[in-house]
């Protein structure tokens, strides 16, 4: 058990702990955004293409807001920008629930607002984690954060599903108006939670990035490998957020079943994340990353093979494992590369965070585009069944790319260290000659 001691909360600064607390509170909002906004669209339109359009609008809004955020950081406190990002998620949901009809224009506007929310939240969150943690503590940071998020994500869907269906499953069909009223109540609660998270966050102390140039178009060859990983990660994000809701509403037709299914295996996944974060080291990241990718492939494989209620449950269970496992390895890899290259290229860390987001956007666009093309030219069922499988297979390429990236990173670190040692020795020699 001695080995399990590893890194702990004692190794984090006060501001890092407040950031974890803030993200834990905001984690109560994320399952609502990820799952139930999509199910709300499906319930009121019965059109998967509208769900994907909403997701595309989000993914258009994110990189644009990342870019704008770079300029805003020069004049606005990072606390306010981060808080605004959380608050806008509530604004987007309020706008969505106020629509008389789920039309394409309304969905696009709601999606763009949510994209702005994610853009401000993630752009500043990535920098805040980078600024308040060290490489040796990041496995535990993401393990702890993912543990807390996964526990919350296992509870919130069940509670919401029960709340939406409670009193509405009598004889005959469920009242759509009653369920929609439930969605509006949840939206108000979400808005309140975002306000609470914003207040808590302001108890921390955080420095903003340096006011330097942050837009670059040429990068080190190591960063190009990181961008390849970003594109492949974005492929899955293209519609993986909304795919569970579409599949669940197709086969179970109930937010109650949706909430229960989301919770299957979540607690097990959470414990795995906490243990992995505590005992794993930077050298284990490739192995952890590979396990996550294989789990995602198996999830898409069983969904495509069975494409029934059993297939959806297996898909959901494996997805609950794969997503957090991937994150606990991917984010530390990304931040370590930024740490290394920002010192070598003498660039603002935010320039890499911004560029990485555009890599994700390309992948997201291709992932969502794959679904839309198959749905338009063939049919929606084929898209739900096989687009995921195509992306699951392509994602396996990330294992090869990650292995190459980590090898190049190690070589570059050694070269940089050798150069620093040579400079130090030369300086010592000059000092010795001067003294003589």
From TrEMBL:
Top-rank taxon, per record: Bacteria
Transmembrane segments: 20-41, 53-74, 81-98, 104-123, 144-165, 185-206, 227-251, 257-276, 288-307, 354-377, 383-402
SUPFAM superfamilies registered for this protein in UniProt: MFS general substrate transporter (SSF103473)
Keyword Membrane: yes
CDD domains referenced in this protein's UniProt entry, alphabetically: MFS
Sorted UniProt keywords: Membrane, Transmembrane, Transmembrane helix
Keyword Protease: no
Organism: Algibacter agarivorans
Protein name in the entry: MFS transporter, YQGE family, transporter
């Amino acid at each position: 058990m001695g080995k399990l001691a590893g890194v702990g909360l004692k190794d984090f600064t006060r501001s890092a702990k407040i950031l974890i607390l803030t993200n834990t509170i905001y984690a109560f909002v994320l399952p609502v955004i990820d799952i139930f906004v999509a199910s709300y669209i499906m319930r009121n339109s019965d059109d998967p293409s509208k769900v994907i359009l909403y997701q595309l609008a989000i993914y258009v809004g994110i990189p644009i807001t990342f870019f704008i955020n770079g300029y805003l950081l020069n004049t606005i406190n990072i606390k306010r920008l981060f808080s605004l990002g959380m608050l806008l998620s509530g604004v987007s949901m309020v706008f969505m629930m106020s629509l008389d009809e789920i039309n394409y224009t309304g969905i696009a506007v709601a999606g763009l607002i949510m994209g702005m929310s994610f853009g401000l939240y993630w752009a500043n969150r990535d920098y805040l984690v980078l600024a308040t943690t060290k490489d040796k503590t990041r496995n535990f940071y993401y393990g702890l954060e993912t543990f807390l998020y996964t526990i919350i994500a296992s509870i919130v869907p069940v509670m919401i599903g029960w709340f939406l269906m409670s009193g509405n499953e009598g004889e005959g069909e469920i009242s759509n108006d009653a369920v929609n009223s439930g969605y509006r109540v949840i939206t108000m609660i979400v808005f309140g939670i975002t306000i609470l998270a914003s207040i808590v966050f302001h108890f921390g102390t955080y420095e903003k990035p340096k006011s330097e140039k942050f837009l670059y178009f040429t990068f080190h060859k190591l960063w190009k490998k990181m961008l390849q990983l970003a594109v492949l990660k974005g492929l899955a994000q293209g519609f993986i957020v909304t795919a569970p809701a579409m599949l669940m509403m197709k086969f179970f037709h109930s937010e109650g079943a949706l909430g229960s299914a989301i919770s299957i295996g979540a607690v097990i996944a959470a414990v795995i994340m906490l243990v992995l974060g505590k005992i794993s080291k930077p050298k284990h990241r490739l192995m952890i990353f590979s396990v996550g990718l294989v789990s995602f492939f198996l999830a898409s494989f069983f969904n495509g093979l069975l494409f029934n209620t059993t297939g959806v449950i297996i898909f959901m269970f494996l997805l609950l494992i794969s997503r957090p496992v991937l994150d606990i390895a991917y984010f530390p890899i990304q931040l370590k590369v930024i740490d290394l290259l920002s010192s070598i290229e003498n660039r603002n860390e935010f320039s890499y965070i911004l560029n990485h987001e555009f890599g994700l956007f390309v992948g997201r666009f291709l992932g969502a585009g794959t679904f839309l093309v198959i749905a338009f030219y063939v049919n929606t069922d084929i898209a739900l069944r096989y687009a995921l499988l195509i992306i699951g297979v392509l994602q396996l390429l990330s294992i090869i790319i990650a292995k190459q990236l980590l090898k190049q990173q190690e070589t570059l670190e050694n070269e940089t260290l050798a150069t620093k040692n040579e400079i130090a020795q030369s300086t010592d020699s000059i000092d010795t000659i001067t003294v003589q």
